[in-house]
């Protein structure tokens, strides 16, 4: 089992940047494929980005491609989401998630993830 703690959210102006962090404790972090999801008010949670166990593979939603970068530091048990060129439509609660997988690949579906952080609020003002 793993516990995830999201942090780094806040209020930023359009065009600005934020870096989200997700710290994991418990089982060996490198055994998890990691993902980031967002949930905007009144909408369902949706995929943002994912990174494989050792970081060799990444995947992004079309809406964030070229603006967001997912990375991980297995020595620090942490995954990051660097968000640049933020837009008001990026406003949401962001969640990290962990998939205990034997495969070195990424996952887009929420049902593939067993563990979730508590979420961190990102608000982008226009």
Shape: globular
Rounded mean pLDDT is 96
Q: Secondary-structure element sequence?
A: EEEEEEEEEEE
Query: How many helices does DSSP assign?
Result: 0
Outline the structure in words.
The chain has strands at 2-7, 10-13, 18-26, 32-39, 46-51, 58-60, 68-73, 78-83, 92-100, 115-116, 120-125. It has no helices and eleven strands. Helix content is 0%, strand content 52%. The model has no long low-confidence stretch (mean pLDDT 96). With 126 residues, the chain is an all-beta fold. It starts with a strand and ends with a strand. Strands 2, 4, 5, 6, 9, 10 and 11 form a seven-stranded mixed β-sheet that branches. A four-stranded antiparallel β-sheet has the order 1-3-8-7, with no helix packed on it.
Short characterization:
By secondary structure, this protein is mainly β. It is 0% helix and 52% strand.
SSE blueprint and pairings:
Elements: E1 2-7, E2 10-13, E3 18-26, E4 32-39, E5 46-51, E6 58-60, E7 68-73, E8 78-83, E9 92-100, E10 115-116, E11 120-125
Parallel strand pairs: 2-11
Antiparallel strand pairs: 1-3, 3-8, 4-5, 4-9, 5-6, 7-8, 9-10, 9-11
Features:
126 residues, globular, 0% helix, seven-stranded mixed sheet, four-stranded antiparallel sheet, single chain, mainly beta, 52% strand
């Amino acid at each position: 089992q793993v516990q995830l703690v999201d942090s780094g959210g806040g209020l930023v102006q359009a065009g600005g940047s934020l870096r989200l962090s997700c710290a994991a404790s418990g089982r060996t972090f490198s055994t998890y494929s990691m993902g980031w999801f967002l949930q905007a008010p009144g909408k369902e949670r949706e995929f943002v980005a994912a990174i494989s166990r050792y970081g060799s593979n990444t995947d992004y939603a079309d809406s964030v491609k070229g603006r967001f970068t997912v990375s991980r530091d297995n020595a620090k048990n942490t995954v990051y989401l660097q968000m640049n060129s933020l837009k008001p439509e990026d406003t949401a609660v962001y969640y990290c998630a962990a998939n205990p997988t034997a495969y070195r690949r990424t996952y887009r579906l929420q049902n593939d993830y067993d563990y979730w952080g508590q979420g961190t609020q990102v608000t982008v003002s226009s």
